[in-house]
Amino acid sequence: MAHYCDLAPGHPFHGPYHDEEYGFPVADDAALFERLALEINQAGLSWLTVLKKRAAFQRAFEGFAIDRVAAYGEAERARLLGDAAIIRNRLKVAAVIHNAGVIQALQRERGSFKAWLDHHHPLDHGDWVRLFKRTFRFTGPEIVGEFLMSTGYLPGAHHDDCPVQARIVAAGPAWLRSRAAASLPNGA
Q1: Number of domains present in the structure of the chain
Q2: What distances in angstroms separate CA 88 from CA 42, 50, 57, one per listed residue?
Q3: Is residue 188 part of a domain?
Q4: What is the pLDDT of residues 41-85, one digit of tens each?
Q5: In the 8-state DSSP scheme, what is residue 188?
Q6: What are the tens digits of pLDDT across the range 25-43?
Q7: Which of 15, 95, 165, 172 could form a disulfide with 138, with the two C-beta atoms 3.0–4.6 Å apart?
Q8: Which helix (H) or strand (E) covers residue 125, if one does?
Q9: CA quadruple 124, 129, 130, 135: dihedral, nearest 10
Q10: Which residues, 6 or more positions from 172, have their beta carbon under 8 angstroms from its beta carbon?
Q11: What's 47's domain CATH number?
């Protein structure tokens, strides 16, 4: 099976995502929400399909402004389901809107979606999946794993010899911080 590092470089859609976003830590809640929404929409489709539609998703979901999306009602749902530029799946659209409301609650509870993720880090993949299933809609093992890998919470986005990996390590992703802490005596 080919790794993303083997497929993405030089590709007009995969290349920029691989080189500039995939695996790097993300601090902005709207950017985290976008990544979660894109992963949800990728389910059953190719990542290339999602990347090609990314700009349309950003327009349709108003830049993934969490408060705006959480307030969407039936008119906005109908608008999204009628928008041929995005993936028009009723369950996925409903999940993105619902999850915006969940993120609002996490922001009230923890200060930000990122703070909530940081609070639960590090978990292994299975524990993350259980947490996401309890918290969000439309979040199975593949969606959760890719979301967390793409935002720096789980390792594995790039080969160790991929030139992007060194930049990710320099950015200090959560998975690297947890490995460093685990290597200290008594976890100190």
Answers
A1: 1
A2: 12, 12, 11
A3: no
A4: 999 999 999 999 999 999 999 999 999 999 999 999 999 999 999
A5: -
A6: 999 999 999 999 999 999 9
A7: 95
A8: helix 125-135
A9: 130
A10: 25
A11: 1.10.340.30
